[in-house]
Design a protein that fits this description.
- The protein is an all-alpha fold.
- It is built from 11 helices and no strands.
- The C terminus is likely disordered.
Length: about 200
């Protein structure tokens, strides 16, 4: 008979794995069930067409029913990649203060076609000044920094703004304004590198 302490130890050792493993999702059999599942997913948050296809593929017993459900959702204007890209870009530019490269990268990862991404990002940033977004992010970050603004902190700010999807030219111009032209040598990141996923 194994020691109860050993059994308890083994149970605690495997407890995180037991909690992480979710029960298998019930496979849906009919087109109506798939349509209802898609509607529930759209009630939680907007989806691109590609995301919805993946969502339905995980739940469908018969994969041949998915195109009909997607077509019905498109016909009712519940799924529209152009509208999704425009809303996503506007929200992330205005509320999260993200740059065009980050927004384009995230939309590409969600499966939105490039033609919709380009038009959405261009229309959002036609009415939004990227330099003001960079200034707002810099102001927020500088409010939490302690001590003098040295080269390490400037490099950290630069990397943070590059990760937020802003162009290196705009970042350098705004950092020059803060440091009064005393900007250390920062690594150059080409804009084409930032737009790739």
């Amino acid at each position: 008979m194994p020691c109860p302490h050993l059994l308890y130890f083994l149970y605690l050792l495997h407890y995180p794995q037991l909690m992480r493993s979710s029960p298998p999702t019930r496979k849906l059999l009919t087109e109506t069930q798939l349509y209802m599942s898609a509607q529930r997913a759209l009630m939680r948050r907007p989806h691109s067409v590609s995301e919805m296809k993946k969502h339905l593929e995980r739940r469908a017993e018969n994969k041949d029913l998915i195109p009909a459900v997607i077509a019905r959702l498109r016909e009712l204007n519940y799924l529209d990649d152009a509208k999704f890209a425009l809303n996503y870009a506007a929200q992330h530019a205005k509320l999260r203060r993200q740059g065009r490269f980050r927004i384009a990268r995230e939309l590409r990862a969600r499966g939105v076609p490039d033609r919709h991404i380009e038009s959405a990002v261009d229309s959002v940033f036609a009415e939004t000044d990227e330099a003001s977004l960079v200034r707002a992010r810099l102001t927020r970050r500088l409010a939490h920094l302690r001590g003098p603004l040295d080269q390490k902190k400037i490099a950290s700010l630069y990397r943070n703004l590059l990760g937020a999807g802003f162009s290196s030219d705009i970042i350098r111009a705004e950092l020059r304004g803060i440091t009064h032209g005393d900007l250390p040598e920062l690594p150059d990141a080409s804009d084409s590198e930032l737009s790739e996923p």
